[in-house]
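Here is a protein:
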Amino acid sequence: VSFASVIDALASQKTANAADKAENLAAKLERMYHQTADEKLKPNITVYTCLVRALKYGGRDTTDLDAVVERVERLGLRPDDKFLDAVDNACQYIQARASPSEFSSLD
């Protein structure tokens, strides 16, 4: 089982607790990579795409999404269309949740 698979499963729970667990798991993977410099442990863009999905439903705000984008950049990962779409969708969802009268349902 990959880290991305577990984070994706957490994202499907759509809860704040699952978002926290997904965040902790991604952070653990990053620490293991930095401690060992083992390229097999380097988080890939799929890990962060799944993390964005978890944060979307976890009651987070857009600053948390910005932090994920910064982590991707720091690791030198190349954002793909799935990642960029996930970030855009999560931003729209979070903004709609904050101002429901201004947006239609984006879920």
